Request: fold
Amino acid sequence: MAYCRKCGAQLKEDDVFCFMCGQPIDKVANAEAESVLGNEVPVTESARPVMSKEESIALAEKLRDEYSAIERLQREINDNQTALKKPVVLSGKRYSMFRFFWPFFIYAYIALYVIYLVGIFISAGINEVDGIIASLFISIAAAVGLLIFGGIYASRKRDRLNEQLGEEEYMIRKRQRDLETHTAEIMNKLSIKKKGVSEYQNLVPIRFRKKHYMERVLILIQTDRAAGFYEAIDMLD
Reply:
């Protein structure tokens, strides 16, 4: 398997130009590399593509950004998977109508006796018997009216609160499903990213495929402590 002399990208046998940087392929110069770049082993001096300082910096920056993206995606996946392992807690509770209706029994009882007593007091000295009967009917009507109103009020409040509880549980389930979908999308992105840098796996030992190692490589090249990318990789040992 040949590699681009400019950027180090892995090439196909029938490639005429590098698909990464457009560099014309020198098959003669790459022939020696084919015997050693097929497996994940350190690349020998003679098999390494010749790169200028600028090309070495460009490759190190590219790998730094790619490894950084891979590490970020992996952290996000780990965080999401940790969140997905936590059990989904749904209250399951529902409100009953009686919870909001029972105070109206007290209101009806109070109204019954207050109106009855007030009617008796007003009718005193006029027509006491008729006043008592009228007060009794009025007080009963008021108590029944309060109970009817209370039933309607309690029913509507129960339905409203239970609907809110249902919406909250739906949102909890939806967030869980969205997190699962998002995690699957991130895993797909991670797979694509890893595939994108796999062509460099024979150029960078597995233990150095990290953002901070590529930053060290950049510093070594930029400060002329290393003549190029491969010398900088060797200096990491």
